Amino acid sequence: MVGKFIVFEGTDGSGKGTMLAKTAEWLFNSSIGHDKIVLTREPTFSGPGSQIRKALKSDKEPMTKAKQLLSLYFEDRKEHIDKLIKPALQLGSIVLCDRYKYSTICYQQAQGIPVESIVAMHKRLLVPDLVLVLDVDPKVAMKRIRASRSSIEKFEKDFFLGEIRQNYLNLKKALPDEPIKFIDANAEPDEVFLKVKKEIAKVLK
After folding, report:
1. Paired sense of beta strands 94-98 and 180-184, if any
2. Is the predicted pLDDT of residue 159 greater than 90, yes or no?
C-alpha cells in the first residue's frame, strides 16, 4: 500500500506547525487507523538544509543570495525526497511535511527570481497528494509572530508577508494541475483545524 504525501504551506505566522501537529495527533488517535505517520519539514537539517538555515539567520536583507539559496533548496529537496519521503510512502506512511516546493516558488519569487524558472526546475519532482495553503492576513501573521518569538527574521515584515501571500494565492495559475487547497487560517486554531481535517479526510478515503 502506497502512502499519502500531504504538505502544509503558508507565510510565516500562518499556523502551519500547529496544524501539522494537530493533524498527526488526530490521525494517530482516530478510528481511521493510521499508525504510520511521518512528520518532516523543509529545509531539512542535512548538508544543503543546514546551509540554508545558516544563511537565513546571517543575511539581514531578503534579496541577498537569492540564486544560491534557490540551488540549495532544490538540492535539499531532492535529497529529502529520495532519502525520506519516497521510502516512507512505499511503506504506506502518511507523510506530513511543513513546507515544500511551494514555499520556494513563493519566497524566491519575492526575491526577484521569475516564477516560471522555479516551476520548471521542480517539474520532475514528486507531486504531493494534497497541498494545504493556510491563508492568513499579514497583520494577523505579524501579531502571531511577535507573540511567539523574541526576534523577527528577514522575511517577517508586513511588506514581504503581503507579497508572499499574494504569490501563494497565485499558485493555482502557475500549477493548475496540482492538488492545492486554500484554507482561511485567520480564525482560532480549532476552527481552522476543522477545515484542515475535512480536506485531509477526502484524500484518505
Report:
1. unpaired
2. no
CATH classification at residue 34: 3.40.50.300
HSE, side-chain direction, 13 A CA sphere, residue 132: 31
Q: How many domains does the chain have?
A: 1
Question: Is 151 or 192 the better-scoring residue by pLDDT?
Answer: 192
- 42: cell is 523543509
Helix/strand/coil (H, E, C) string of the chain? CCCEEEEEECCCCCCHHHHHHHHHHHHHHCCCCCCCEEEEECCCCCHHHHHHHHHHHHCCCCCCCHHHHHHHHHHHHHHHHHHHHHHHHHCCCEEEEECCHHHHHHHHHHCCCCHHHHHHHCCCCCCCCEEEEEECCHHHHHHHHHHHCCCCCCCCCHHHHHHHHHHHHCHHHHCCCCCEEEEECCCCHHHHHHHHHHHHHHHHC
Structural domain harbouring 93:
4-204
51's grid cell? 546551509
Please, are residues 88 and 5 in contact by the beta-carbon 8 Å criterion?
no
